[in-house]
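To: structure desk
From: M.T.
Subject: fold request, one chain
Message: Could you run this one when you get a chance? Sequence is below, nothing fancy, just the single chain.
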Amino acid sequence: MGADRRYAYGAAAGLLGDLLLGDPRRGHPVAVFGRAAAAAEGALWHDHRGWGALHTAVCAGGAVALGALAARAVRPSPAASVALTAAAAWSVVGGTSLAREARAIGRALTAGDVEAARARLPHLCGRDPQALDADGIARAVVESVAENTSDAVVGALVWGAVAGVPGLLGFRAVNTLDAMVGHKSPRHRRFGWAAARLDDVAGWPGARLTAVLAAAAGGDPRGAVRAWRADAGRHPSPNAGPVEASFAGALGVRLGGTLSYGGRVEHRPVLNGAAGRAVRAGDIDRTVRLSRRVGLLALGTTVAARLLVTGVKGLKGQGK
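Reply: Done. Structure tokens follow.
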């Protein structure tokens, strides 16, 4: 069994494991990595970009190296290679937990229990729940599901197709570091600069693929493309912009506007403002279903691309 087929079977099994089981309740590998990265931050922190770059290199490079060593160790065994890929994919893909939290908030909003929805919102995103009414909570959930479809599912599958297990672990490590130190707090403004920029680079292909697949799988492909082209560039994030704009157009809703993070207020441009309506609680379930379709399409697209590239290389090698 070739390496590409091993990856294809393993990635499919890992995504199926996430769909059926969700994240492990205890000892999640991402949480273990987070604790190690926090310990490294405690040892390396200085208010300086260079020290932050070293922290990023140590943590992300360590994850890639661990994945490479594990993949090399199981290479002689096709079954072990598939199992390792499946375990890595399951540990880094978080679509089911994302959907579970989003739907729990949606049920609370539908039942009119805004306080319960506010209590659950921090499980999904970092916005100030007390600053949001029911519609604001619904919009926050839709935006978070859209962005995390790229970060927690599609981006990992893209880098897995490129580099196998090291790609899966490396992408999730970079994404986790950005969430930990990549924000503009006084402590991390300079120290987290490298993690934030690396996350922008690593997330670029997955975000564009997510936007394309959201347009293809949503209810309004033309609206998704129109919103992407018109509004994505105005978003402060180079990767969240295309994803959120495409989801907004596909769902026929407006995203963006005023946000509050940790007492800091941001005024972001409205996405799909001309054609979309305000987000309602019922749109959360529509967004989750779209996210699911995008994830499955991403698996098929990335695996097919990997097999195609290998096939073309094989034909060129025979031609020589």
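Reply (cont.): The mean pLDDT is 93. Let me know if you need anything else for the meeting.
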